[in-house]
Amino acid sequence: MKIFLSRLMILGLACQVAQAACQREATDFNYPSQRLEEALQRLAHSTGCPVTVDLTPFADRKVPALHGRYTPEEALWQLIKGTGLEGYPTADGLEANTQEQDAVGAKAQAVRSLINTQKGSITKAKQQHYEQQIKEVETNAAALARQQGFISAGERSSFHRSLDEMLNELKR
46, 19 in Cβ contact below 8 A? Predict the structure, then answer.
């Protein structure tokens, strides 16, 4: 229920400004430190960009003040830094989620599953090496999301390439 209400509140406020299309150009922001939910509502209202996000894990999280000139996407990144959420533009607004971390996690699990099916044919040291590499990729993806508020296309490609290389090695 909390998930639905959080999404509804953000989307509901954004719908009030739906007549004005999402303004993508840089705008001056002068937000005080406030709860993340309030900051995202304010972002949606001031830019006309609906923000889709599940705030349940971040219900009472405070974000630092936001001062400066940013595009709506850049403002979103500033607001969600440190949360582990990733911010992305959508066709009609903005979205914050963990989609890239989830994709890395799913591919990492595929590598782990393949390792488990091949336990008899690869050494314990090789298994540990793969697990260390997998953990490094997952840790780096989460760290970048926290530090930047997004995972870039290049970073995403690098993570998937590393995991794909492990999958290909294991399939040989």
Answer: no
In the chain, DSSP finds a helix count (H) and a strand count (E) of: 6, 7
Q: Which amino acid is at 114?
A: L
Element (H, E) at 94: strand 94-97
pTM metric for this prediction: 0.83
Question: For the segment 106-161, what is each residue's pLDDT rounded down to a tens digit?
Answer: 999 999 999 999 888 899 999 999 999 999 999 999 999 999 999 999 999 999 99
Q: How many residues does this entry show for the chain?
A: 172
What are the structural domains of the chain?
2-97 (3.55.50.30), 99-171 (no CATH)
How far CA 169 is from CA of 102, 112, 120, 132, 139, in Å, comes to 23, 13, 15, 15, 22
Burial class (CB in 10 A: 0-12, 13-18, 19+), 155: middle
User: How far is residue 154's CA from residue 159's CA, in Å, rounded to a whole number?
Assistant: 9
- Contact indicator for 122, 115 with CB cutoff of 8 Å: yes
Q: What is the C-alpha end-to-end distance of the chain, expressed in Å?
A: 47
Report the C-alpha gap between 151 and 160 in whole angstroms. Answer: 12
